Amino acid sequence: MKECAVTNQRVERRVEHRKQVDQYYSVEFSINGLETPYKFKIWNIASTSMCILVKEDSDILSWLKVGDTMNVKYYSTDLDYPPQYLATAIRHITKNDQGRFKGHYLVGLEILEGQDQKKTH
To answer: What is the pLDDT of residues 36-47, one digit of tens each?
Structure first.
């Protein structure tokens, strides 16, 4: 019975993750020390996180660290909803050496819990 509870929690986390990925199209954030804000499309490449793709020669890579948290502007897939700022953590930075995204890093993002992630007008 205990195993069912754990399985249900995993399924619920995957469903919640899917809602986040489906709800947002892109993100934008600024880094202190860099003049321009950066905007990235959200990709659902891995089953465990939403990711952004960063070119391996991009200046921003040296500024991103696993575990960092930042205030990220999320743009909805539905244009009727305004962008939202949500505290977000960088969960992984993984180099992709092959396939479609060769020459890029996958940067895994996680919206921190405890925030209202529902769309509101």
So the answer is: 899 999 987 655
User: What is residue 120's three-state secondary structure?
Assistant: coil
The structure's pTM equals 0.74
Distance CA 16, CA 5 (A): 16
58-67 in b/e form (b: 16+ CB < 10 A) is eebeeebeee
Which CATH code for domain 2-111?
A: 2.40.10.220
Alpha-carbon distance of 32 to 8, in angstroms, equals 41
Question: Of 41, 107, 112, 105, which is closest to residue 71 (Cα–Cα)?
Answer: 112
* DSSP code, position 118: S
